[in-house]
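Quick one:
INPUT:
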């Protein structure tokens, strides 16, 4: 293949994430509700019957299905199913920045308004309970921040002899900041806290706050 054909083959492509086709993809919704004329953020507590992360606090969401038209439709569908509300009760949906979690899954977060919170009837098979926190609390409360350090452990037969430095190769190590918010005995952390932190920074006008 000559250079002209190489350029022509690639000319109109749009860049994406390398290896995206092999990654699992999820959507979540950060739900806003109005309670006594004050904006609240709604959270779920995952059912203790769930295999993954039982009892943890999260936003509504889940894996993108083949039947979902796009990431937005997944967020709407999952929120409707988990909170027992009609899809039409979810309005003013706006995308936040997507991210890769520690398992290299792509997470597409959105923020949206639930217009009839009094009609919420959680799906007991997935949701143990729901609760809300005033937005004003998060805007005046900084999270506690702790670091998680990642370690490189090559498999037993990794060909260290093929790379410069061999066993003494200087791997690039990284860390992840974990955010913790505590409210009335509830602990919000992990991906949920990262999405929340990003959302709050956008309200403050800081767009590039997470490294």
């Amino acid at each position: 293949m000559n250079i002209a054909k190489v350029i022509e083959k690639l000319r109109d492509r749009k860049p994406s994430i390398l290896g995206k086709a092999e990654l699992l993809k999820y959507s979540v919704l950060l739900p806003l509700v109005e309670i006594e004329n004050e904006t609240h953020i709604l959270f779920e507590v995952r059912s203790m019957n769930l295999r993954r992360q039982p009892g943890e606090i999260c936003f509504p969401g889940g894996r993108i299905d083949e039947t979902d038209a796009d990431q937005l439709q997944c967020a709407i569908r999952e929120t409707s199913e988990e909170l027992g509300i009609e899809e039409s009760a979810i309005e003013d949906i706006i995308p936040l920045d997507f991210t890769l979690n520690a398992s290299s899954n792509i997470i597409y977060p959105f923020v949206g308004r639930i217009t009839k919170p009094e009609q919420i009837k959680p799906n007991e098979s997935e949701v143990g309970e729901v609760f809300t926190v005033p937005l004003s609390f998060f805007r005046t409360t900084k999270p506690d921040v702790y670091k998680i350090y990642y370690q490189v452990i090559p498999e037993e037969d990794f060909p260290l002899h093929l790379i410069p430095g061999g066993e003494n190769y200087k791997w690039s190590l990284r860390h992840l900041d974990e955010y913790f918010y505590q409210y009335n005995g509830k602990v919000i952390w992990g991906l949920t806290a990262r999405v929340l932190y990003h959302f709050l920074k956008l309200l403050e006008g800081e767009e590039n706050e997470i490294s």
